[in-house]
Amino acid sequence: METVKDLVHNPRFRSTLSWIALALILIGLVAGTFHTTKKVEYIWRWEQIPRYVLFKDSDLIEAQEDATVIALDRDGSDTVIVAANFLDEEQYYTVPSNLVTVSVGDEIRSGQVLAQWERWKAGLLLKGLILTLEISVLAIILGIIIGLFTGLARLSGSPAPKWLAIGYIELIRGTPLLVQIYIFYFFVGQVFKLSNFMAGVLALSVFAGAYVAEIIRAGIQSIHRGQSEAARSLGMNYYLSMRYIILPQAFKRILPPLAGQFISLIKDSSLVGVIALVELTRAGREIGTSTFNYFEVFFTVAALYLILTFSLSMIVQFMERRFAVSD
Amino acid sequence: MIRLDRVTKEYFGKAAVADLTLTVAEGEFAILIGPSGCGKSTTLRMINRLIEVTRGTIAIDGTNVEHYRPEELRRRIGYAIQNVGLFPHMTVAQNIAVVPKLLRWDESRRDRRTDELLDLFSLDPAEYRTKYPHQLSGGEAQRVGVARALAADPAILLMDEPFGALDPITRESLQIEFARIQRELKKTIVFVTHDIDEAIRLANRIVILKEGRLVQAGTPEAILTAPVDRFVMEFIGTDRALKRLSRLSAADFMVDAPSIGQEMSLSEAGSALADHRYLWVVDGLRRPVGWLDGDDLGSEAATAAEAMTRMDYRTEGIAADATLREALSRMIQGGIRGAPVVDEGGELLGEIRLSDILDA
Ligand SMILES: Nc1ncnc2c1ncn2[C@@H]1O[C@H](COP(=O)(O)OP(=O)(O)O)[C@@H](O)[C@H]1O
Ligand SMILES: [Mg+2]
């Protein structure tokens, strides 16, 4: 009896028990998923997926007519083969320079293979991933800039910047992002002649900016008042005290909520699919509609988003550790 | 020289400082004192324009402070506050060098100045330069705070209860240290406190405020001997006589101390004792290790060291820069009429007698 009681209260035994429980739950989840997918009679075709990430593009250039090569013009990494038929009509064939097999004066016959090559190309999913990454990075950078100035304006003593900042923040936080994207695309985009890409990036930046502003405001307010007073009493102006005293201290506290905000931003970027930007989610949908491999495609899409958000988390954790020196 | 001329500061129509006229001369250590909320900090902060006056003028060396840009003015006036306000993300050296950097001193000059100041405040530069504020004790942080205020060698130093948050022992040692530094630097200082003992210990001139108005200004001695009204009298307390003692140092009242070496034979010591009631017995480094009086001569011992009453100069000796008040309290506690005065190494400098203190 005693030994059982001892065992139950032993912290190492409890911890082991907890790990075992975790393993059982995970196994249960996998088994459950597997079982459900069996029931819906879906044919899994995972082998279809890789080519939407990367695929080997093979290409072949054949001569159209019998002719004589009269020139080879280099054009970047390609070479243009110029050939003339018996009527002196010129034909042009563009091939990669390293694959040129003919030289000036050679006779070529109709149907002859002038060059044949294979190369890796990004599939729709990878293109979508890259576009998502581009949009997110730009929106994060612009969002920080907008957020910093709005946050400072929000804390300003004079009414104009303060109330403009409050108005902007409330407006953005009070309306759905999807609606904002439509407004940027149909209205702002029309007025300023923006591309889809620019409209999407701007909509996301302006959206993120409002949240970043609130995070920065809270970070600055969390720094003791004595700090800005000390800075002022030593002869720093507003800019110097913000730049060298307040913001560096606030930065450490701002970083974690900012990271959360940017992870949301990466995920929210899936909404710009509605303005014909084929980012990751939209790419997934397009592949789905043409192949009906919805299950595999969206599992893959989810995994790709996870790679982006997880990398961002790791970068932020690294930065937090770097800045923790003076604590 | 700082001159405040009929200075008033109002908040929402209520005066925090009212019609204050005050001159602080070059090299003077002026202390503003009064109950909480009487306008001390407000007065101080109007001098470097952290707060603007409502009415009246403040001039430094004859120039109205409003003629300077506030940032420029503040770089020329040192300012130290109670909760220190050190920047936690900067090292001690970076904190001290803030104003020199704003003034664009080159790096080697800044480094030299930082080390010089750390030395002045008895902080080993090699050890403290690279520390962060959270690694400092309260007393060390406060020293760095004052060092930072002094960094660009300003002629004027404003201090708002700089030692207020420290424990009594640290506060006292810092006061003594700062008094020494001020004797060296001779800055014009305006210092705020609500601690009358601190004021009496440090000030050349005490300015007593009440509800934003000046009640009395004068040397500590003048205020202690002739308080103008009941408010001042109550404020300085009933132990005025004792307080005066804290203005005087043991070194000023010390007289020559008769002493003999510890190796001296008892018979020789006996003849030396003929002219004195007692003798201090010192070791090879002239540090008092005991005393000898008539009663000790009767013993069998061969040398003074064996016959004497032992003492420890580290605990029973009085430091030369201690105040008479401290000396008195030590003597009363030990039940003795005289005590040896020693320097930092423990060497006997002289002695101080109870009767002399009572005559002071
Ligand atoms: N920013 C402010 N707004 C309104 N009243 C203030 C402000 N600062 C100080 N006061 C008032 O002015 C008076 C003097 O304050 P202060 O100079 O800080 O006193 P102390 O002598 O304790 O340093 C107090 O009654 C205080 O409430
Ligand atoms: Mg105050």
Notes on the protein architecture:
- The complex is a heterodimer of chains A (327) and B (360).
- Chain A is built from eleven helices and six strands.
- Chain A is α+β, with helices and mostly antiparallel strands.
- In chain A, helix 5 (159-173) packs across helix 7 (196-221), helix 7 crosses helix 9 (238-268) and helix 8 (225-233) packs antiparallel against helix 9 (238-268).
- In chain B, 38% of the residues lie in helices and 25% in strands.
- By secondary structure, chain B is of the alpha/beta class.
- At the A-B interface, helix 8 and helix 9 of A face helix 2 and helix 4 of B.
- Bound molecules: adenosine-5'-diphosphate and magnesium ion (MG).
- Magnesium ion (MG) binds next to helix 1 of chain B.
Which structural class matches the secondary elements of chain B? alpha/beta
Q: What order do the SSEs of chain A take from the amino end to the carboxyl end, as H and E?
A: HHHEEEEEEHHHHHHHH
Distance, first to last CA of chain A: 49 Å
Determine the fraction of residues in helical runs of chain B and give it as a percent range. 25-40%
Helix content of chain A: 55-70%
* Strand arrangement, major sheet of chain B: 6-7-8-3-9-10
Main sheet makeup of chain B: 6 strands, mixed
* Low-confidence regions of chain A: none
Average pLDDT of chain B? 89
Bound heterogens, unique: adenosine-5'-diphosphate, magnesium ion
N-C termini distance of chain B: 33 Å
> What order do the strands of the largest sheet of chain A run in, or round the barrel if closed?
4-3-2-5
The count of helical stretches of chain A stands at 11
Main sheet record of chain A: 4 strands, antiparallel
Structural class category of chain A: alpha+beta
Measured on Cα atoms, how large is the radius of gyration of chain A? 30 Å
Strand content of chain A: 5-15%
* Overall form of chain A: extended
Strand content bin of chain B: 25-35%
Oligomeric assembly: heterodimer
